[in-house]
Design a protein that fits this description.
The complex is a heterodimer of chains A (about 475) and B (about 260). Chain A has about 475 residues and is an alpha/beta fold. Chain A has one domain (about 1-475). Helices cover about 25% and strands about 35% of the residues of chain A. Chain A is built from eleven helices and 23 strands. Chain A has helices spanning about 1-10, 35-40, 45-60, 100-110, 140-145, 155-160, 160-165, 180-185, 425-435, 440-455, 460-475; strands at about 25, 85-90, 125-130, 135, 150, 190-195, 205-210, 220-225, 230-240, 245-250, 250-255, 260-270, 280-290, 300-305, 310-315, 315-320, 325-335, 340-350, 355-365, 370-375, 385-395, 400-410, 415-425. In chain A, strands 5, 6, 8, 10, 11, 13, 15, 16, 18, 20 and 22 form an eleven-stranded mixed β-sheet that branches. In chain A, strands 4-3-7-9-12-14-17-19-21-23 form a ten-stranded mixed β-sheet, with helices on one face. In chain A, strand 3 and strand 4 form a beta hairpin. In chain A, helix 3 (about 45-60) packs antiparallel against helix 8 (about 180-185) and helix 9 (about 425-435) crosses helix 10 (about 440-455). Chain B has a single domain (about 5-250), classed as Rossmann fold (3-Layer(aba) Sandwich), CATH 3.40.50. Chain B is about 40% helix and about 30% strand. Chain B has helices at about 45-50, 75-80, 100-115, 120-135, 140-145, 150-165, 180-195, 210-215, 235-245, 245-250; strands at about 5-15, 20-30, 35, 55-65, 70, 85, 95-100, 145, 170-175, 200-205, 220-225, 225-230. In chain B, the strands form three sheets. In chain B, strands 6-9-10-3-11-12 form a six-stranded mixed β-sheet, sandwiched between helices. Chain B has a four-stranded antiparallel β-sheet with strand order 2-1-4-5. In chain B, helix 6 packs parallel to helix 7. The radius of gyration of chain B is 18 Å and the shape is globular. The chains are: A alpha/beta (about 475), B alpha/beta (about 260). The interface of A and B includes residues 427, 438 and 440 of A.
Chain lengths: ~475, ~260
């Protein structure tokens, strides 16, 4: 029985695997200073940003890819075979969403992201990034009323240059790591958010990333600043077409929360995972980090990772301000031959800083799932607290779950708790559900959703529903 | 004339690779409530699990007919949808899955099989509330995860609640009385009795006669050494209580275990 259902899993289709036929402005594969100059020129960037990119590139050149410590394996990536810029061709600057290429619009509709403002789910403003550039940002006017800046990154460079200049690279420096350095050199677009002091953003902000062109890397850059007392909830979703070759996604996200500010960042990552034999799929090497710069500030990461052939990401919090709070809620699912090495870093610097880590890893088929997390309590962090809980669920007997917790406590008044469990979906649980009339598949979904509930309830409602469905699709037939 | 609800012929079954049932014959008529009593290790739970289709049990010989059809050919969920219900001796916990949500999924899976429309959340809730009264189940338990942190008695109540909601034709109650105090036993027996009817048959699997004071069976079968060694009416249960299992084992020529 188990074999049959595993085969079903292998056949489970990736629904988002279609491609869109649009006229592309695309550059030749390869990376050099000239390519960086070309990208910068295409975006009409100021000189300081070009210099910043070139500095990043020079730091990247001698760096080594970090495949020695992460528990992922993949053939070497040829960085000269990747295209660093692809954009849907547009004749002129868009005046309104009505002018958006109808093909792109249809793509987003297929993905369930209607860009028509009238049809929008009330309360979600969307920035849609198609390959390298942002194609539409909705609800601009409504947000402007509150003084909120929500722009494609490339526009923000022109319209909020002081803010971009001040904060870009302030949380993830250019030379932070191999992929962050690469991103800093070649990033093409992304989202920029600024919430002014005391403003509670009246709607969820959302970016939808879509890789469409082949042989293209996607390198987006997101920068979110919540000024004193501000609040914002930000959602990120991603899909890509089904292709036999691997594609690289190396994003950087930086969050800054000033005094009493709160940022809630939620991701549902559903990049193409590759097929059952491990052909194709996205390499997802992402650096996400938030800085709780102000007192009593709070940054909360919630991620549901179901896609990508390889996921390598550690959304982290630097708890600098006294009494600041960092949270990390994660569900990572690996099926087929997916590999995930994901977790977080909580760096406690300020006094009475608090962090919570809830990680749920699910492995099925040949999936390999690692939790890697660092909790560091620095000398001055009197009264710091951390609670970590890492649970792994195994489905079948060919998958793996691994936990690598690192705890560094340099302050005797700190309190750090770590709990970890590994369990197998019990035959008794499955049989119990089946005895009540549920199919094996529904039973697995039910048990998995129960396992993830603590994390899923942190997501905004529409997102939680989408995440539940995704977990179901990703596990189709994955019963052992 | 319609077939019996359950007819078991010369059933041999292994649990793992251990032979447990060794030629068991049993007939359960429509609307009949029968007790299967026996000492530890006689094969009571194996019988319950084979009827429900639990993995890990292998039928090596014999037949199990449900309303005249081959029950063993069906998957566990098909059996459930066709009206076979097992009240578990040890109900499992499913953390994070709301009890009411679980029950609704189960009810709707079975309704779909019967060609009935699915119940929406409100419809389901009003029916569930009604049935909860039957087993005096506090509202608070409905909101928790499936059996999550339930006491032994609460788990058993939850089983009977599910039985009430799923409206099965054949109910197998596996040691439903084990671990219950007298008050809980009375409540649960009340729930079970309310569910008796001419179209519903029950197999009460128990070690003790105590349960049968509250749920009075039409027939009593004694299981020993993997076979039914004696059958009779409810008087047999009293006799067993007085003379102990050693008596039937002697009568039947089965060694005590």
């Amino acid at each position: 029985m188990a074999n049959e259902t595993l085969e079903q899993l292998a056949r489970a289709d990736y629904e988002w695997g279609f491609t869109t036929d649009v006229e592309q402005d695309i550059i030749e594969p390869g990376l050099s200073e000239d390519v960086i100059r070309l990208i910068s020129a295409k975006k009409g960037e100021p000189a300081w940003l070009l210099d910043w990119r070139l500095a990043a590139y020079r730091r990247w050149l001698p760096m080594e890819e970090p495949h020695h410590w992460a528990k992922v394996s993949y053939p070497p990536i040829d960085y000269q075979a990747i295209r660093y810029y692809a954009a849907p061709k547009r004749k002129k600057q868009l005046e309104s969403l009505d002018e958006l290429d109808p093909e792109i619009r249809r793509t987003y509709e297929k993905l369930g992201i209607p860009l028509d403002e009238q049809k929008m789910l009330a309360g979600v403003a969307v920035d849609a990034v198609f390959d390298s550039v942002s194609v539409a940002t909705t609800f601009k006017k409504e947000l402007e009323k509150h003084g909120i800046i929500f722009l494609p990154f490339s526009e923000a460079v022109h319209r909020a240059p002081e803010l971009v200049k001040k904060y870009l690279g302030s949380v993830v420096p250019q030379g932070d790591n191999f992929f962050a350095a690469l991103n800093s050199a070649v990033f093409t677009d992304g989202s920029f958010v600024y919430i002014p002091p005391g403003v509670r953003c009246p709607m969820e902000l959302s970016t939808y990333f879509r890789i469409n062109a082949s042989e293209t890397g996607q390198f987006e850059r997101t920068l979110i600043i919540a000024d004193q007392g501000a609040y914002v909830s930000y959602l990120e979703g991603c899909t890509a077409p089904q292709r036999d070759e691997n594609q690289l996604h190396a994003a950087v996200v930086e969050l800054i929360a000033l005094d009493d500010a709160q940022i809630k960042y939620s991701t549902v990552q559903n990049w193409y995972p590759g097929d059952a034999e491990g052909r194709g799929g996205i390499y997802n090497f992402v650096t996400k980090r938030g800085k709780c710069a102000g007192r009593r500030s709070k940054i909360s990461w919630t991620q549901v990772e179901t896609g990508s052939a390889i996921t390598w990401k550690y959304p982290s919090c630097i708890l600098l301000g006294d009494d600041s709070v960092g949270e990390f809620y994660s569900v990572a699912l690996t099926a087929k031959r997916q590999q995930a090495d994901t977790g977080t870093k909580m760096i406690h610097i300020g006094k009475r800083t608090k962090s919570t880590i809830i990680s749920k890893g699910i492995s099925a088929a040949h999936g390999q799932n690692s939790y890697r997390g660092l909790v560091r309590i620095q000398k001055g962090a009197d009264g710091a607290r951390n609670y970590s809980q890492c649970d792994s669920l195994l489905i079948g007997d060919k998958c793996g779950a691994h936990t690598f917790p690192y705890l560094e406590v340099q302050n005797p008044t700190a309190k750090v708790e770590h709990e970890a469990t590994t369990s197998k979906i019990g035959e008794d649980q499955l049989f119990y559900c089946q005895q009540r009339g549920l199919s094996e598949e529904d039973a697995v979904n039910l048990i998995v959703n129960g396992f993830c509930k603590r994390v899923l309830k942190e997501l905004p409602m529409e997102f939680a529903v989408e995440a539940q469905k995704l977990l179901g699709v990703s596990l189709e037939g994955a019963v052992g | 004339m319609s077939a019996p609800m359950l007819e078991i012929r010369d059933l041999h079954a292994n649990a793992g690779d251990q032979p447990i049932l060794k030629g068991l014959d049993l007939v359960l008529e429509r609307g009949e409530v029968a007790a299967v009593m026996g000492p530890n290790g006689s094969g009571k739970s194996t019988l319950a699990n084979v009827v429900a289709g639990k993995p890990g049990y292998e039928v090596t010989k014999g037949q199990v007919l449900y309303e005249g059809r081959d029950l063993l050919a069906l998957s566990p969920e098909q059996r459930a949808r066709e009206g076979v219900f097992l009240a578990f001796q040890y109900p499992v916990e499913i953390p994070g899955v709301g009890n009411m949500y679980f029950l609704k999924q189960a009810v709707n899976a079975i309704r779909a099989h019967r060609g009935l429309e699915e119940l929406d959340a409100m419809e389901f809730l009003s029916i569930a509330r009604e049935k909860m009264k039957l087993v005096e189940m506090p509202e608070e338990l409905a909101k928790r995860g499936v059996n999550e942190g339930f006491s032994g008695g609460e788990k058993k109540r939850n089983e009977i609640l599910q039985m009430a909601l799923l409206e099965p034709k054949l109910c197998v109650l596996d040691e439903t009385d084990s671990g219950l105090d007298i008050d809980a036993l009375r409540v649960i027996a009340g729930g079970v009795n309310a569910l008796r009817g001419p179209e519903r048959s029950m197999l009460l699997i128990t070690h003790y006669q105590r349960l049968l004071e509250y749920i009075v069976p039409d027939r009593v079968h004694v299981l020993a050494g993997g076979r039914i060694v004696k059958s009779g009416d409810k008087q047999l249960a009293h006799e067993l209580e007085e003379k102990g299992y050693g008596w039937v084992q002697q009568v039947a020529g089965v060694g005590a275990r």
